[in-house]
Amino acid sequence: MAETGRYLYAIGRGLTPDDLADVAGLQGGRLEVVERHGLTAIVSTVNLDEFGEEGLRRNLEDLAWLEQVARTHDTVVHQASARTATAPLRLATVCLGDDQVRARLDEWREALERTLDRISGRMEWSVKTFAAEAAASVAGPSDPPTGAGAGAAYLKRRKEATTQREDASEAAARLADEIHMLLCGFAVAGRRLPPQDRRLTGHEGTMTLNGAYLVETTSAEKFRTAAKALGEEHPEVRFDVQGPWPPYSFATLDDA
Amino acid sequence: MTEPATAPDQRLEPTREFTGSQIALVDLLDRLLGAGVVLAGDVTISLAGVDLVQVRLHALITSVRADMIEGN
Q: Could you tell me which of A180, A82, A194 has the C-alpha nearest to residue B26?
């Protein structure tokens, strides 16, 4: 019989197993609730062959595994978020038993309460912007200059092209700063995540903004309208607006 | 009349017109590995000392490359 642990999905207040009846946990496990001082952690039992330290090291390198776990985790978080303010846990947080879960809820009680207060009635929106790649109109290496004059002209052209590219990229960065600032005006909080790797997303152009915004549920339409207006104002930039999502980027515990 | 053949894009989440609340995998991993409540401590047996972002990027890029090689 393999050892088992308790996988933690999210923490909310007053969640009951009935709230999660329609959703299955990882490895088909039943979702359960561990409660302490009104804080409720959503957990399910997992096999430590797969979710122990050694198993995780191996499995996190496996995209299919990672995707399946991330999707299940997200489905549970979505379901709970629809009921009450819910702080999602990082992927692959595993405790050895319910006593350890309760001890953790005890220890982090104040920070958890603050986090839940902060995200209550709010959802996360994602806004990304993409700038067109600055055209690199430089003579390629297959086009070697001949003679001293041609060489100097080539170097001059190359320098000019580089300067133009730098100017364009600085302007794109400034515009992204400005867009982020303006969007923050419609949000309770905003964060800039690192731009994503094109090899993962397949996007065209340069991702100049990967912004996450915590928005009052009641202001969602205003936020969306503002993002749309910015997109119309700046046709040189491609906007990608997604949401509402559970407040993943804003559920980090502050240092108590 | 034949439809022009277009190579299917095998990369992650090429479709962005989806307007529901389904999160693209790369966005989800940005958040599930980079943010979220962190209950650090002795009971969290997962991944002490492992940089998850590195793990993630390594995993994804390796896999995307594998897809591309298979596709060719």
A: A194
